[in-house]
Write a structure and sequence with these properties.
Blueprint lengths: L1 H13 L10 H20 L9 H154 L4 H29 L11 E4 L3 E4 L1 H4 L14 E4 L4
């Protein structure tokens, strides 16, 4: 009976968790110091454990305890290895996950930065192009305005050239008219001179003056010629004088009538030609020798 009780106690001490599913390794570790202490006491003093039959109890206790300790050590070592492997695996997985997240974040930030820089560069290029287009359009408008002004100036010069050509032709016609007028006046004077000579000769013949007929005719012709020259000089002087003030020299031609009829001083005060009373549209100063 004592042996059976001792064995029963040894089984309860040595194998508290082997057949029980409810005992955890942590509970076993908490119970381990008591079991180890009991085993140590049994080794040092076999009589403390079982009394009668202590050698057998000591042998059974030592064998069972050693097996139990060996199993516990193996189980604990295996559990630690599993925990360390699990911890290492979890750490490596977490590190890999964090590394992937960091890489993804860096790539996303790089992509955002690239897109932002690309957009800024695009906006800057658009602003530069707008400035260049505005400057180019301004320069083109200025050049177009200059071209229009040059064309207008060329047209004005062409019109002025045509007017000058027409005025030149008019002056040539006037010169021809004046030449024909002078020629007709000279013919008229010659005819008048011949008539005066003939009348003097007839007058002397009727009065019976034989020797003095030639002298009277010559003196009569001289008088007529002097009078004619005086008239010509007076007409020429009158022709050279301004038709408004009758004192200034003629030097301004009125247009469109083309009459040489005013001096430079009276040109500013005349709105119409003093010869034909036509409205003055323009005037040209000429030089007369």
């Amino acid at each position: 009976m004592a042996i059976q009780a001792q064995l029963y106690n040894s089984e309860n001490i040595g194998f508290p968790f082997c057949g029980s599913s409810s005992t955890s390794p942590q509970d076993w570790m908490m119970m381990m110091p008591t079991t180890a202490t009991t085993a140590a006491v049994a080794v040092e003093n076999p009589s403390c454990v079982g009394g009668v039959g202590g050698g057998f109890n000591q042998f059974c206790f030592n064998t069972q305890q050693k097996q139990q300790i060996h199993q516990f050590q193996n189980h604990h070592h295996h559990h630690q290895q599993k925990q360390s492997l699990y911890f290492e695996n979890s750490i490596s997985v977490e590190d890999e996950k964090q590394r992937l997240e960091i890489d993804h974040y860096i790539r996303s930030q790089n992509e955002k930065l690239r897109l932002l820089l690309q957009e800024q560069r695009k906006q800057q290029l658009e602003m530069i192009l707008k400035k260049i287009e505005s400057k180019a359009s301004t320069l083109l408008r200025q050049k177009d305005g200059e071209i229009i002004k040059a064309n207008n100036r060329a047209m004005e010069l062409e019109i002025l050239l045509k007017k000058l050509e027409m005025e030149t032709q008019a002056w040539q016609r006037m010169a021809l008219e004046y030449e024909s007028m002078v020629f007709s006046l000279n013919n008229t004077l010659e005819q008048m001179r011949e008539k005066a000579t003939a009348s003097c000769f007839l007058f002397n013949n009727n009065n019976g003056g034989g020797a003095g007929v030639a002298e009277d005719a010559e003196s009569c012709c001289d008088v007529e010629e002097d009078h004619h020259h005086e008239l010509e000089e007076e007409e020429e002087e009158k022709w050279k004088l301004c038709k408004r003030c009758n004192s200034g020299d003629l030097c301004v031609v009125f247009l469109p009538c083309r009459h040489l009829c005013s001096c430079k001083a009276c040109d500013a005060f005349l709105d119409s030609c003093p010869v034909c009373l036509a409205p003055k549209k323009a005037s040209i100063e000429v030089l007369i020798d």
